[in-house]
Structure formats: C-alpha cells, structure tokens
C-alpha cells in the first residue's frame, strides 16, 4: 500500500480529559441489537442441560430412557456418550509451568465437582421441549465430601475436590517481590520498618461475567460443522 | 391454549398461548419483540423489564395470560418518529451502558421510577433500580443518566457544565 497523501497538517483535537459519545449505542438503547438468543435458523434445534444439584459426587447411573421418548426430543447425551471425543476446556493462561489443571469436560463423565455442573444435554425441537425433558432425566449420585473453605482446602489432610489430583493446590503464585526477583528482600524491609501493620484481607473470586455469556448459534453442514450465517460469540466485555 | 388480547407498543394482538408461557417469551418468540431480553431466568436481573399498564414489571415473572386485556410497552415502543425517549438519550449521553444487555430493562425500570418520583436523589435512584443488575458499568453513569432524564422529563434542563459522563 502506498501513501498517496501527506497526513493533514492541522493540529489534532486534544483527546485527553474529554468525554466521548459512543457510536454503537443507537441499536442498544432502542432494543434493536442482535443477541444470540434472537437468532433463528430453519429447523433449529435447542439444547437444555441437566445439571448437578450436588457439589461433589460420583455419578452412578443416568437413566435417559423417559427423556428420550418425550415429545420433540431428538437426542439425550450424557458425558459417557461423548467421553472419548469431548476433550477438556483448555486453560488459556497456565499461571505457572507446573499448574495442576484438574480438567474441565463439557459434560461430567464420572464425577461432578460443583453444583450446576452439566451431566447431560437434551437436544429438542423447541426450547420448552428441551427444558421439559430435563426433568425426566434420572441421575443417581454417591455423595463425596465437600470442600468449602479455602484455608481448609490447602491443608495436607483435606478432602480432595478432584479425586484424581494429589492435593487441592493448583499452583503457587509468588507475590513476594524478593522471591519473585522483582524487588528487594521483603522480610528485611519488614524487619527494618519502624512500624509494621498486620491486617487480614479477603478478596472474592474475580470472574468477569457479562450478562450475555459466550454463546453461539451453529449451522451443521455436511460432515463438517460451520458457524451459522451470522454467528455471534461474545468474548469480551466489562 | 388460552386466547389473549393485548396491545404491545401500540399494536393490537390476539394470540393463543400456553397458560405457562411467560410474558417475555410471548413478546420475544410470538411477537418478535426481541428488544426485551432474558438475562437470568430467575427474576434477579431485571433485563426483561417492560411496562404493563404503565407499571414496570419483570416480564419473566408474569404469565402471558396475566397480560390479557392490558397495554404492554417495551424498549421498542418508547421512541417515536426517530426521536429518542429522554431516558434513552440520557443513557447515551451519560455513557450509561457498555455491553447493553441490561439496558432495555434498566431504561424501562428507570422511566417508571421517574414517573413515580420526578426528582429522585442519587440514593433514590439506586434504590429504585435495585432490581436491575448491570455487570459492566458499576452504576455510576446509570444513576447520572436517570437523574439527567428525570430533569428533562419534568422540564428541568440540566446546566451543561454539570453534566458529563465519568468514565
């Protein structure tokens, strides 16, 4: 690409300290934007998820026979049905090289590790048919110990959140500037301080969770799966 | 199926609905009024707020049959001939939205609030919209937007130098 004209010589308007009106507001304040849930394709099927009511348990049996016969239901899939192909949600940023990732299957196979974990998925011709069939899936759980307190969880004798891991600790994130190599010796700084103030700080788990979560409408074509004509997947906000 | 007759955003509809159909699902799926959104399905978030005979309701907590004979106004019905409602204009000017998902419900709840209280204090705005959740903005600019719109809706134009979104 060739630059054909010199940039305008006029002094640009100052930007800093100036409120800017957004350009994308018109459709958002009048109810005319396209959310994923607005999109309808011919013959579109809908999913609904059967979710765990328990925080930790072994799945001993899932009976989907009644749900499979329900009106409008096309398929009912359990974690075991897709265990070999579903993989695990990857961690985009392993915080440390030795971080333990317990795995995050799309649908739980043998064990659930939190309330709300998906254990089966209904595919149906309408949203309501899918939701109705959720109530027809019968899941049996053997309850396992529940770990609720972070400080208890990292103790050596703690019950495990994930049975296949060796501890509940995923990684150690070094905040000490001396240990991390980004500053001087923290212990020495405290030792030399005229006054040392100790306080306990508790911070909530931080999860950016905008109101329309990541979502997508998919149009399968032939043997490959392609995104629909106007796929929408929101990946960042807030 | 039960037949209902409703007026939505000025148009009359006569439809058969299942008794369990929620008003929000009737609006979205039968009438195509997809400007009103479902945020939580549990009546926590208020994104689905519409006016039912002039009062703000969470349309996921109202059955469509309960709207029989009523007038429903959604976010799609408050501007006319390309002129934004003062509340819509204020949300834009005060930067009262980011992703925009809560905005339809936030605007409809705020209009009802100002109809009841023409000059709400900051605390009154915060209390008035406590049933509506926003996950992006932190509410500061939403409160400013509601107060600006309250002024305009009640003939109190704000002094230009007191306005300005804080972002």
TrEMBL record, chain A:
**Region ranges (Disordered):** 1-23, 217-238
Name its species.
Answer: Blastococcus brunescens
Kindly provide the name given to this protein in its UniProt entry: Aldehyde oxidase/xanthine dehydrogenase a/b hammerhead domain-containing protein
PANTHER family from the xrefs?
ALDEHYDE OXIDASE 1-RELATED (PTHR11908:SF132), XANTHINE DEHYDROGENASE (PTHR11908)
Q: Which domain of life is it from?
A: Bacteria
Q: Does the keyword Chaperone apply?
A: no
Cite the Aldehyde oxidase/xanthine dehydrogenase a/b hammerhead domain residue spans from the record: 30-145
Q: What are the UniProt keywords, alphabetically?
A: Molybdenum, Oxidoreductase
List the biased-composition ranges (Basic and acidic residues).
12-23
Which InterPro entries does the record associate with it? Ald_Oxase/Xan_DH_a/b, Ald_Oxase/Xan_DH_a/b_sf, Ald_Oxase/xanthine_DH-like, AldOxase/xan_DH_Mopterin-bd_sf
Spans of biased composition, class Basic residues? 229-238
UniProtKB/TrEMBL annotation, chain B:
User: What is the name of this protein?
Assistant: (2Fe-2S)-binding protein
Q: Name one Pfam family in it.
A: Fer2_2
- Keywords of this entry: 2Fe-2S, Iron, Iron-sulfur, Metal-binding, Oxidoreductase
Where in the numbering of this chain does the 2Fe-2S ferredoxin-type domain appear?
2-78
CDD domains per record: fer2
Q: Which InterPro entries match?
A: 2Fe-2S-bd (IPR002888), 2Fe-2S-bd_dom_sf (IPR036884), 2Fe-2S_ferredoxin-like_sf (IPR036010), 2Fe-2S_ferredoxin-type (IPR001041), Beta-grasp_dom_sf (IPR012675), Diverse_Oxidoreductases (IPR051452)
């Amino acid at each position: 690409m060739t630059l054909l004209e010199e940039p305008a010589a006029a002094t640009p308007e100052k930007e800093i300290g100036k409120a800017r009106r957004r350009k994308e507001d018109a459709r958002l304040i009048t109810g005319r934007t396209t959310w994923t849930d607005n999109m309808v394709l011919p013959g579109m099927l809908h999913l609904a998820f059967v979710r765990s009511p328990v925080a930790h348990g072994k799945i001993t049996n899932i009976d989907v026979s009644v749900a499979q016969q329900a009106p409008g239901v096309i398929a009912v899939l359990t974690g075991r049905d897709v265990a070999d192909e579903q993989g695990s949600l990857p961690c985009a940023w392993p915080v440390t090289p030795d971080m333990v990732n317990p795995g995050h299957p799309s649908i739980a196979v043998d064990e659930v590790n939190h309330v709300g974990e998906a254990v089966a998925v209904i595919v149906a011709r309408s949203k309501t048919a899918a939701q109705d069939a959720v109530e027809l899936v019968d899941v049996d759980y053997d309850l396992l110990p529940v770990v609720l307190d972070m400080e208890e969880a990292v103790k050596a004798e703690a019950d495990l959140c994930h049975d296949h891991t060796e501890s509940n600790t995923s990684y150690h994130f070094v905040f000490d500037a001396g240990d991390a190599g980004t500053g001087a010796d923290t212990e020495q700084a405290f030792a030399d301080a005229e006054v040392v103030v100790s306080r306990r700080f508790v911070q909530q788990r931080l999860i950016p969770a905008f109101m329309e979560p990541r979502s997508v409408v998919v149009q399968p074509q032939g043997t490959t799966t392609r995104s629909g004509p106007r796929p929408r997947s929101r990946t960042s906000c807030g | 199926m039960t037949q209902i007759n409703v007026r939505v955003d000025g148009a009359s509809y006569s439809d058969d609905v299942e008794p369990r159909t929620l008003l929000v699902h009737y609006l979205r799926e039968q009438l195509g009024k997809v400007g009103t959104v479902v945020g939580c399905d549990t009546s926590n978030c208020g994104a689905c707020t519409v006016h039912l005979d002039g009062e703000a309701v969470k349309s996921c907590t109202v059955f469509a049959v309960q709207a029989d004979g009523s007038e429903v106004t959604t976010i799609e019905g408050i501007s006319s001939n390309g002129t934004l409602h003062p509340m819509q204009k204020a949300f834009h000017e005060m930067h009262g939205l980011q992703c925009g998902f809560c905005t339809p419900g936030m605007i409809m709840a705020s209009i009802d609030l100002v109809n009841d209280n023409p000059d709400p204090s900051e605390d009154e705005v915060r209390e008035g919209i406590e049933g509506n959740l926003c996950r992006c903005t932190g509410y500061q600019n939403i409160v400013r937007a509601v107060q600006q719109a309250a002024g305009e809706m009640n003939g109190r134009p704000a002094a230009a130098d007191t306005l300005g979104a804080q972002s």
